[in-house]
Amino acid sequence: MSLFNMNKLQISVVIILICISGVVYAQDSTEIIRQARAFIQNKEYTKATDLLKTAIAEDGKILTYKKELFWSYYHQDRYKEAMALMSSILKSAQKDEQCYQFCGYIYRAEGKYNSCDSILKLGIKNYPSSGPLYNDLGENAVNFKKTNAIQFWEKGIEEDPDFAGNYYNAAMYYLNAEEPLWGILYGEIFVNFSPLGEKSIQIRKRLLQTYKSLFTQIKKMKTGEFETPFAKKFITHLYKQEELSRRSMSLDDLLMIRSRFMLDWFHDRSTVLPFQLFEKHRQMLQDGLFPAYHQWLFGLVEDAASYQNWKNLHAEEFAAFSKYQQNRLFHIPNGQYYRYSH
Description:
Blueprint: H1 8-41, H2 45-58, H3 63-75, H4 79-90, H5 97-109, H6 113-126, H7 131-143, H8 149-159, H9 165-176, H10 180-193, H11 198-212, H12 214-220, H13 229-238, H14 251-267, H15 276-287, H16 290-302, H17 304-313, H18 315-327
Helix pairs in contact: 1-2, 1-3, 2-3, 3-4, 4-5, 5-6, 5-7, 6-7, 7-8, 8-9, 9-10, 9-11, 10-11, 11-16, 13-14, 14-15, 16-17
């Protein structure tokens, strides 16, 4: 019976059945993926591989099946099979930017840095705004002992400002090179994107260390570092707080420096440069949450016991800040890239 010969009730029943089968199918695929990931996490790779191969045989249109199978191969060091799988996907319409990343992982694991460089650049040719691909290119350059890694991380920040990885690598690069201006900015942005984990703790420690010697480091930098409008405005208002830096540089001193800097930055309307991190600072200052944010950023790595004591004494304030953090997804709009003038 064709649709043309069905009455309205029959057509409705058919549509409902199609919808139900679609939901069940989606649930089945989700469960397969969940189970495969559990197997991989538990290092039950044979079970994961068998499950995923069966799922792919039944429906090869679901790319996630193939990606999970890649990870099963990868964790077993079965690089030849993993590469064959990814290579076949790259020849199809299924490919996405992550498939190029996965090939890069294999080449890096095998020490084939030239091949890794080539496949990642091919990926960027197809996905020119991919933060993850730029990040991997920079990391591969480090493995390759090249000196241009920062160029890739900067490009990743410019093209894909909501991807955290490039901020971490760029921040560590600048902080290690004692170029603190962009080191502290990128580092704080990274923590706002990725507040949990070892990298976040590492960056917080480096930020605090750098702030305590910030003015000394800046005086050693080349004047060319401050030629962009953003850098000029930054250094102009920062130096207004130099006298405060001669104190003990306790967290309270640092809070005062950062708060005054923000007030000066937004009071200066001569050079309007929208910058989401500073917009967040201003909002928290207006809401009375900036001290809690300051403690959240630096307190734990400065002195865990003092940090806990501060939270206990300011429980209401910290609860309000935590709610603020949870309800506002940190996001950086395109066009707020100021590292270099264009």
